[in-house]
Each structure stands twice: as C-alpha cells, then as structure tokens.
Specification:
The protein is of the alpha/beta class. It has 18 helices and 11 strands. Helix content is 40%, strand content 12%. Helix 4 links the parallel strand 3 and strand 4. Helix 8 crosses helix 10, helix 10 packs across helix 12 and helix 11 packs antiparallel against helix 12.
C-alpha cells in the first residue's frame, strides 16, 4: 500500500491448502521441511542470468552494472494442487561480498499490494552501506507483478483508489468504476483470481527460501510488505531470522477499507503542505497563507467536479484531482512537497481554462491513474486485496461513512472511505490470516504516516512483545528507512541487520 479493507467465511479447500503449506489456518503450527508435493519446487535449479532484457531496460541494466543476477522461479498456481498449473516469479540477487561474515538471504518487498521489487537490492544496498556485504539481497516481483507471470483485467484506468466526488452522482460513478473492474477481472481471469492472495505470495517466498538452500530468511518489508512479512511468520514459524517492518500495518485492521484509518493523517498532511507552500508564495504563487493555498486546492477540485480538467492529453475529473494530492502527501520532504506545488500550479491553470502540459512527474502519475497504462498494477492490487478480505457490506454503507467523515475531513474522507472493487468480488478462497504469534522484529514508523498509521505500529508492537519500535515523531512520512534521511532510524536498522541484536528498548528518533 505505497499508495494505497469486511471478512468473509472461507470456502472449501482450506484444510487441503493448510496441509500443502505445512500449517493449519490461522495457527503457528510447525511446518514440515518439505510439504507434500512441493519437493520439486524446493529443489529446483535456479538459472541465474543477466537482468537486462533489452536496450531500453534501465532497471535491468542498473542491476547488471551492480553485479546482480536474475532468474525465474517456478511455483504452483494452486497450492492445493502442486502437480497442476504453474506460474513463474521473477527474482534478483546481489550476492554477499563478505562471505566470511555472511548472514544469508535478505528478502525485500516494496509494498503495494502489487508493487514490483526486482530492483530493491539496489535501493536497499545503498541504505545498508557496508552491512549489505553480509547479505544476499533478494529482490522479488510477487506473483502476477512486474516480470512475474502477468495479470491484467483490461481496465481503462489504473488506480483502484480515488475520491467518491462531491455528491451522489459522483459516488454512483465511483461505484460503477469499481463494479466494472471486478466484472472485468472475473471475465478475463476467473481461473487465476482465487490464487491471488497474500498467503500464496508468502508461500512463494518460502519456495524462494528453499530454492536458495537457506533454512531461514531475513526480511525487509515496507507498507503492505509489513503485512506480508507478518503472514509469512505465521505460516512458516521459525523460518525468519532478522526482520525489519517499515510503515507497519496492523493485521487486525487489514481490510478493504484499510485507508480509512489514515483519514486524519492525510487531512493534517494536506494542511502542513499548504503551510509549507504558503511560506514559498514567491516561488509558487499559490497563496500567502495556508488558508489561501487550501482555497486554491478547493478551487481545483470544484472545477474538476464541474468539468474534467484538460491537462495535456489527460482528463482529470473530481475522482482523480484529489488523488494527485493523496499521492503527493506520502512524504513531507522538500522535494515531494515542491513537486506537489508545481503540479498544483499546472492544475490551477487548467482549472481556469488555460491550455497546460504536465511535467514529467505529473504526466507519469496521471498516466498510471487515469489511463489503461496503469491497468496491470491496478488489477493486481485489487486482486490481492480482494483475494484476501473482500466483503459485501452494501454500497450505501460506504456513502454514509463518506458523508459522516466529510464533515471533519473534507479532503481525505471521500477518498479513504470510498467503495472498492472488493464490494463486488467473489468470496476469498481462504480466510484472512490471524497473526497471533510473537516474533522478534524491528518495527519502524513515523507518527504522521499517511498510509499506515502510527497507531497500527503500536498495536503490532504490543502484540509482538519481543519486537522493538523505532519512532520518528512529527513526520508525515510513509517509509522511513533509507528514504527519509533520518540518520538515527537508518543507524538503528543497520545496527540490527549487522549483528541481529534488537535495541534494549523502543527508540525515538528525532531529527
């Protein structure tokens, strides 16, 4: 959920799946070393090769330059039928350069759901510095993501998250968009959808572990990746070494309306950005006070509700204009704040009827959100979340929540409480994982995180008594380690990854 909730009874097949995975549903039962039928996957030879797939593959070229290698591992589509249809998952590896002090593989996940991670050995390696020399850094495109076996529902837009709009007409359109996504996915991928879930991604991770010949893995996960890591520890107890969870999701709150918890944080972040922008009126000309900047933003949203804004080749309506701000409020660093201010300049001119062209950043964002170019990632994001927790609660219930929330949080509530495609999804093939173990891990969270709230991190810390929590106060930041420039937080993570010893107490990293 780097941008980024209902529960349904499990259908038949859970018991068989539990046997295949080596655990019973929702428990921490010991797993067999090689679950029945999975031996050929655990013992498969890994064909490591160059990562670049052509002259335009900059990610692959950067991995090759760094000395990484890539491979495609085979996993079962359906873990209840390991002898049946298979799919592939793409992995990358940057090998440890200090074999005398090698810890083992460090699996990396960048969140989403549906975020690719093949390039993460580069970014994680940079954050880790010399500590990276002790690890085989393993990037992974989860099932149906990136270079792994694809899934695309053929949607005409890309983002599964958008605002409900200002009135019932707008909300009805939002309902129609989400229903359309669910129906398209069902029509084009009905045979695959039951097998798109966090639990199956965790099972894939364990095949990666086994194929690498490692008895245990270390793990670094951001955002949704923190939920995936927690699920892995529940399904495969005793198979993790050092765990870092950054931007922590409370699994008890994981549902199709997960973003509702972040409503207040996003509203506050918008006001903080407006104050920052007002202090730079000479640069951006968006208003000399926070109230004036917020008035400019409201004017953009009102104009988009009256008639979609023309921004180059894009059309930005009342559903997607707020999403530009939601996407830009993931960090309070100067660079993303400045990018949001520049995007606001463009949208404000469009709202006045001027012909405008988006800059590179806004163009990429609008392409991913409002056109079919974003369909693959939007499709997978919906399929994972809805494959985990889809619940039919009635379309009117979302509208009531939106209207109630709008009174205090007029920007965030219509977006964070909005309906999702999960309302129209088939029941998940398995019940959500109940994470009730206690695993030593280093948890990292900013108090003003606009995606995964600090309260959720506190809940996981209380549940995992052997863990420790690194808090970055007074920061509207989603994803801290290696991303925020907080020297204290980075040092805490690197010290833990270096020697495996958690801090004696929770740590607060001001700065």
């Amino acid at each position: 959920m780097r941008i980024t909730r209902g529960r349904q009874a499990a259908v038949a097949g859970i018991a068989a799946l539990a046997v295949a995975a080596g655990t019973s549903p929702g428990t921490a039962a010991e797993a067999a070393e090689t679950p029945s039928g999975l031996g050929r996957y655990h013992a498969q030879d890994i064909d490591w090769h160059a990562c670049a797939q052509g002259p335009d593959d900059t990610t692959g070229q950067e991995l090759d330059t760094a000395g990484a290698r890539c491979a495609d591992l085979t996993v079962p589509l359906d873990y209840t039928d390991p002898g049946g249809r298979t799919i592939t998952i793409a992995v990358s590896r940057l090998r440890a350069t200090d074999p005398a002090h090698r810890v083992g593989p460090l699996l990396l996940n960048n969140g989403g759901p549906g975020g690719p991670g093949l390039d993460m050995p580069l970014t994680a390696g940079a954050a880790m510095g010399k500590v990276a020399e002790k690890y085989d850094l393993i990037g992974l495109d989860p099932r149906f993501v990136g270079r792994s076996t694809p899934l695309d529902c053929g949607w005409h837009i890309g983002s599964t998250v958008f605002s409900a709009g200002k009135n019932r007409a707008g909300y009805r359109h939002a309902v129609a968009l989400q229903r359309d996504l669910a129906e398209r996915c069902r029509a084009t991928n009905a045979d695959v959808l039951p097998h798109v879930s966090t639990r199956n991604t965790a099972r894939d991770m364990d095949i990666v572990r086994a194929a690498l010949g490692a008895p245990r893995i270390s793990y670094l996960g951001y955002s949704y990746g923190t939920y995936l890591g927690q699920v892995y520890t529940e399904l495969f107890p005793g198979r993790t070494d050092r765990m870092v969870l950054d931007g922590v999701i409370d699994p008890a709150r994981y549902s199709q309306t997960l973003l509702a918890d972040s409503t207040q944080a996003n509203e506050r972040a918008l006001h903080a950005w407006a104050a920052w922008t007002a202090a730079r009126h000479r640069t951006y000309g968006l208003g000399r006070t926070s109230a004036a900047v917020l008035s400019t933003v409201r004017g953009i949203q009102q104009a988009a509700a009256d008639k979609p804004l023309r921004v180059g080749d894009f059309r930005v309506d009342e559903h997607f204009a707020p999403l530009v701000y939601f996407a830009g409020l993931g960090s309070d660093l100067n660079t993303p704040r400045a990018e949001l201010a520049v995007a606001t300049q463009t949208l404000a001119r469009a709202a006045k009827g001027h012909q405008v062209e988006p800059g590179e950043g806004l163009s990429g964002l609008l392409s991913a959100m409002t056109t079919k170019a974003g369909s693959p990632q939007g499709s997978v994001q919906a399929a994972i979340l809805c494959g985990d927790v889809a619940t039919q609660r009635g379309t009117e219930s979302y509208w009531r929540d939106i209207q109630t929330g709008r009174k205090k949080h007029p920007f965030a509530a219509p977006l964070s409480y909005n309906i999702t495609a999960c309302e129209f999804w088939d029941a998940p093939a398995e019940a959500p994982t109940v994470v009730d173990n206690d695993v030593p891990a280093l948890l990292v969270n900013a108090t003003g995180d606009t995606r995964t709230t600090y309260a959720g991190a506190r809940q996981v810390r209380e549940r995992w008594s052997r863990s420790r929590l690194v808090t970055v106060p007074d920061a509207h930041q989603h994803g801290v380690y290696g991303e925020y420039g907080n020297v204290c937080a980075d040092a805490q993570v690197n010290a833990y990854l270096a020697d495996g010893r958690l801090p004696r107490h929770d740590v607060t990293c001001r700065g």
